[in-house]
Amino acid sequence: MHAVSIASVTKTYGDHVAVSDLSLEVPAGAVYGFIGPNGSGKTTTLRMILNIIRPDTGSIEVLGARDARAANDRVGYLPEERGLYKKMKVRHLLAYYGSLKGVTSRQARERGDAWLDRFDLGEAADRKVEALSKGMAQKVQFIATVLSEPELVILDEPFSGLDPVNLDVIRQAVVELNRRGTTVIFSTHDMEMAEKMCDRLFMIFRGEKVLDGTLDDIQERYGTDTVRLRVDGGRELIEQHPAVQRVTDLGQYQEVRVQGDPQELLAALAGRTRVSLFEIARPSLHDIFVRIAGPDAERAVEETRAADAAVS
Amino acid sequence: MSKILTVTRAEYVKATRSKAFVIGVLLTPLLFSGSIVAMAISKKTVDVEERRFAVVDRTGALYAAVEDAAEERNATALRDESGEKQVLPAWVPSAYAPDDAAASDDDVLLELSERVESKDLAGFLVIGADIVSTGTGGDREFSWHTKTPTYKDLPRWLERVVNGRVRAERFAAAELDEQLVETLSREADLRTVGLTERDEETGEVIAAEEESDFANLLVPAALALMMFMLVIMSVPALMNNVLEEKMQKIAEVLVSSVTPFELLMGKLFSAVCVSLTLGVLYVGGALLFVHNVDDIPPQVLDAIGPGILAWFAFFLLLALLIFGSMFSALGSACSELQDAQTMMMPAMILMMLPMFFLGPVIENPGGSLATTLSLVPPFTPLVMFLRMAIPPGVEWWQLGLAVVLTTGFTVLCVMASAKIFRIGILSAGQTPNYRKLVGWVLSK
pLDDT (tens digit, 9 = 90+) per residue, B396-418? Predict the structure, then answer.
């Protein structure tokens, strides 16, 4: 059973292809992470799942409903930029947003109060939104998203701009929702958060799907060519070795991509300096992201384009 | 449909619970009645400082008449009815006699002008030597010289007094009895009345009623003005409301729950409800007023009958849907307040245009200008309503045609606006121009 099935979907704006021939299936009950650089088509994809915009071609099925908006009352959405009426009182706002999803005002009040208490916002219920701090407003927006007890929640950058305390509170809430059976799709730029929280990951780059699978699958695919190293003499010494393709200085240690046998690199380094850390690691999601969408990748894309242009 | 009503309800509550609404409801009639009261008060508190003026009487015979008339007026006409309070300024004339008998006319004018300049005089009157003669030649000068030409009471009075005296002298010279001439040339007053009818049941003839300008012109004009006010009070607000939701990204939350069309319709219905609420309050207030004031002629009550009020509501509804959808669409297309103001101008002019023709339409409601305007859909609500409300009303086929045309136009307007709204509400970046908006309307 899939919460969302996207089949061969393309969406263009004028000449710009926002999403190109995308297929994706989000299993029910999963926590699915959407990653990708800014402007690569994440928000467009999320909006298409929400039926806010329609794809040019292809089809999207949400919670078993193919009809344009049939499933919308069962989906909760937290947009990237917060959208709250500044002049409304928190309680009225929750009641209104809830009523748009078919929640009665009594339900809205009960559920809203429970959530507000849980987020330590009980006193804010009768305050106007404009009087809330940024963190508080974000929590209110989150409550508005889940008030209708949706089967699927779509969170666009839910953690951006939150301090660690608020971040933990919302993350905990998301985990709990998922435990109770809610399917969660969220987009983030925080790779560590994605690694920790997501069952499955989807990466979109320039409108195309470049990653899709569990973290294990993905890391497996990007192999065991990553070594974590700490040596006296630091980065310069490591870079001199011909098998080293790329060094990422993480401060405490260097993350190194090696071509060939890492053992040879260890032997060579051990002969020249003291090695205090040597660990063959799987590449972090961060590293994989940069490999796909970093400056090198940009250059490769440009070159391919230039070559295509020359051929045609 | 239930979602449209949810939006309508929320928007209506939001609009009517705001302080601005309550203040607006109370303030608008207050402003109106306040300005009437203010005018009445300002009329009563006229300047009663005496007005001194000189008369250069070259006939040598008319000054006495001016002096006598001023004296009589100062003695009898300055106080209010109770005789306690002075409400008009006294006139204090003086005959001008030059110090130097040989002074030229120019010297006289210069000297008197200086005295006016130094506020010694309010002005001076020059009466030519041959003004009494019935010929056309000679010195027929008759002029009022002043620094305050907008103050008309005094020159008008002088004109009347001097002419009265001149006329009397001419009658005397012709040996005619002025009283008799006036009686013989008295005009009959023309009375404007409606048509005589026969009561179908009793067969009695019902005498024509005296027509009241108040009922025939003022009531329709006031209702039309109110319709315009109700539209202009709610429609630009609708645009701001849409723009605010878009700029603060509320729109994105809303359209993840309701379709843009449901959102737009909810907003429009809410605007209609708010306007009707205001209309009921104002018209109800006006009806209460005319029912409780004895001086109001009975025709006025007939002029604000249920029929005309139903048409008022109908045309108001169409106007709100036409301009409300137009302004909502414009608001959805803009990303900044400044752009919105620029975009709004043409629509605003379209909305206000019929107001500029209110005068000609009232004067000649059956004329070709009024008829044409009343059949152009964006203008129909206001102009056709006005034409209907002024006797004798309009021919049924014109009304029918206008209703069909305007209803059709309203549907088109809402549909086109819904398309712009759907694209615009989520668009970012540069505000499109009108040509691009047309493109959006025509897109699939």
Answer: 899 999 999 999 999 999 999 99
Distance CA(B8)–CA(A90), nearest Å, equals 20
Nearest to A100 among B3, B14, B251 (CB): B3
Determine the distance in angstroms separating the CA of A231 from the nearest CA of chain B, rounded to an integer.
Answer: 50
* Whole-angstrom distance, CA of residue B382 vs CA of residue B387: 9
| Residue B121: partners with Cβ closer than 8 Å, 6 or more residues away | B52, B53, B54, B112, B115
Measured CA angle at B425 (ends B420, B430), to 5 deg = 85
| CATH class of this structure's domain A224-281 | alpha beta
Q: Which residue has the tokens 């009645």?
A: B33
Place of tokens 């660990």: A279
B19-44 helix and B260-292 helix, angle to the nearest 10 degrees = 30
pLDDT tens-digit readout, B319-337: 999 999 999 999 999 888 8
Please tell me if residue B156 touches chain A, with a CB cutoff of 8 Å.
Answer: no
Per the CB < 8 A criterion, the answer to whether B87 and B44 are in contact is: yes
Phi then psi dihedrals of residue B278, to 5 deg? -60, -45
Q: Which CATH class is domain A2-216?
A: alpha beta
Distance to chain A for B241, nearest Cα, Å: 11
B50-182 — its CATH code?
3.40.190
Tell me the pLDDT tens digit for each residue of B140-190. 889 999 998 888 889 999 999 999 999 998 898 888 888 888 888 888 888
Judging contacts by C-beta atoms under 8 Å, the chain B residues touching residue A144 are 253
Count Cβ atoms within 10 A of the Cβ of residue B358 and give its class: 0-12 exposed, 13-18 middle, 19 or more buried. Answer: middle
Per the DSSP assignment, residues forming a β-bridge with B53 are B93, B123
DSSP state of A307: H
Residue labelled with tokens 């994440």: A42
Q: Is A47 on the interface with B (CB under 8 A)?
A: yes
Mapped onto helix, strand or coil, the DSSP state of residue B159 is: helix
Domain ranges, ordered by start, for chain A: 2-216, 224-281
Degrees to nearest 5, angle at CA A61 with A59 and A67: 85
Please report the ipTM that was assigned to this predicted complex: 0.79
Out of B6, B245, B426, the one facing A100 most closely (by C-beta) is B6
With a cut of 90, say whether residue A70 has pLDDT above it. no
B259 CB within 8 Å of a chain A CB: yes
For residues B308 and B290, give the distance between their C-alpha atoms in angstroms, rounded to a whole number.
Answer: 16
Query: Which residues does residue A26 pair with via DSSP β-bridges, in sequence order?
Result: A4
